Amino acid sequence: MTERRSPEDIAALEVTTERAPGERHAIAVAGHPTGIVTFPAPPAPPERSRPRAKSREGRIDLLRLATAGSVDDGKSTLVGRLLYDTKSVLADQLDAVHRASVDKGLSTPDLSLLVDGLRSEREQGITIDVAYRYFATPRRSFVLADTPGHVQYTRNTVTGASTAQLAVLLVDARKGVLEQTRRHAAVLALLGVPRLVVAVNKIDLVDYDEAAFEVIAKEFTDHATALGYPLGSVLAIPVSALIGDNVVNHSDRTLWYAGPTLLEHLETVPVEPDPHHIPFRFPVQYVIRPRTPEHPDYRGYAGQVASGTVTPGDEVVVLPAGLRTTVTRIDTPDGPLAEASAGASVTLVLADDLDIARGDLIAVAAAPPRVTGELDATLAWLADKPLRHNARVLVKHGTRTVAAIVTTLVSRFDEQQLSTVGNPENLQLNEIGRVLLRTAEPLPVDDYAANRRTGSFLVIDPADGTTLAAGLVGTPQPLSGIRPN
């Protein structure tokens, strides 16, 4: 998200960008009694001698993570603390935050301002949009999505967590596990986020009480395991985002805690990167036909590899038509490739001239997805307008958009009681339910549990094009063992 600063925020003096660890940061402020306000510089990050982990393709290891939790649990402050203590903030950004903090009468920088970029967010002290931040340490690179905590912005949490490999769910140590905490945990489980960290924040406000931490950690872990998470995939960490306890550096105020800091866990947690090991899927975005003297007969199919790996010589099938052919070349602007894996944007050249258009899916012939016009799916309803029986919608799956009708509302998931209500009259904003859809044209789909990219879709309002729901094909893990109410 592009950061929008007020003129007051960016009216900062030029400062030195290189500072020794522990050196204090001073800025001149008009109207201040002394004219100078001094903030402590971020502490030096702990030494890390291990080089950055490499993926099997030799690239720097990347972790995609999201933050979630109830309102005012301190998500933006925690993200700001991570950026601040790892020295991942540009000097002008830091000066703007310092100046805005002084204007608010604070003696320490308000690190949430590093993330809450919209003017309305700063004025209200809340997160509205999904804020993406990028930072790196010697061990790993990170893409972090800071999602909103308010109930009415749960739809943005779905967006931010949809590609996450790990989620940090914050809980206020004074309030414990709340309704929104359970809702976010259910959404994360539904989306298949494989690992959770429950950061028990504001531990300083309960005097670093071990007993308070243990109560929250047990309650949340029990809820997460009921949603299908294995014990080993959930970790609780006591933190203070404001002060910095156990975020980057270990705190001497929590000697009773023997686990890793948040950053240590993020750097070392084993996470499967891109989906290379699952069958090859390639939604066609564009058909390239130059018809120039240099390339009179060239026909290529451009898109991004959704999953798996493809090499020249592989037999593939074009869906939904079911036509089989062979990949002869993989083209890019930098020349042909010997192999393309998930995330790569390439152009495939095939052995046969087939009738292929945008919206078709090229898949490995040995393990194709099923082609169907009937979807048994789970929806996370994101619209103010409720979903009712026989609603006419558009379904966007990959690069194909087709008309559809909701034939049955099968059940609604109660994320608080971990139960289902059969045959609901409708689905309201932020509710999760199982539905049956009939599409006007067949779609090549996988179950979401097997392939997140080709097992997901969007439900769109045909009248104005707004997104109504995020859809998952099949019954995801958190709903498979839920008891009826």
Plain-language structure description:
β12 (315-319) and β13 form a beta hairpin. It is built from nine helices and 26 strands. It has helices at 7-10, 75-85, 91-103, 119-124, 154-161, 179-190, 210-226, 262-268, 477-480; strands at residues 25-28, 36-39, 62-69, 131-136, 141-146, 166-172, 196-201, 234-238, 281-288, 300-304, 309-310, 315-319, 323-331, 340-341, 345-350, 361-364, 370-381, 387-388, 392-397, 400-414, 419-422, 426-427, 432-445, 456-460, 467-473, 483-484. The radius of gyration is 25 Å and the shape is globular. With 485 residues, the protein is an alpha+beta fold.
Spatial gap, N to C terminus = 41 Å
Count the DSSP helices: 9
Outline:
globular
Q: Helical residue percent?
A: 10-25%
Structural class: alpha+beta
Instruction: Give the amount of beta strand, in percent.
Output: 25-35%
Oligomer: single chain
Radius of gyration (CA) equals 25 Å
* Major sheet characteristics: 6 strands, mixed
The strand count comes to 26
How do the strands line up in the largest sheet? 4-5-3-6-7-8
**Low-pLDDT residue spans:** 1-58, 118-128
Blueprint (SSEs and pairs):
Blueprint: H1 7-10, E1 25-28, E2 36-39, E3 62-69, H2 75-85, H3 91-103, H4 119-124, E4 131-136, E5 141-146, H5 154-161, E6 166-172, H6 179-190, E7 196-201, H7 210-226, E8 234-238, H8 262-268, E9 281-288, E10 300-304, E11 309-310, E12 315-319, E13 323-331, E14 340-341, E15 345-350, E16 361-364, E17 370-381, E18 387-388, E19 392-397, E20 400-414, E21 419-422, E22 426-427, E23 432-445, E24 456-460, E25 467-473, H9 477-480, E26 483-484
Parallel strand pairs: 3-5, 3-6, 6-7, 7-8, 21-26
Antiparallel strand pairs: 1-2, 4-5, 9-10, 9-16, 10-15, 11-14, 12-13, 12-16, 13-15, 17-23, 17-25, 18-22, 19-20, 19-24, 20-21, 20-23, 24-25
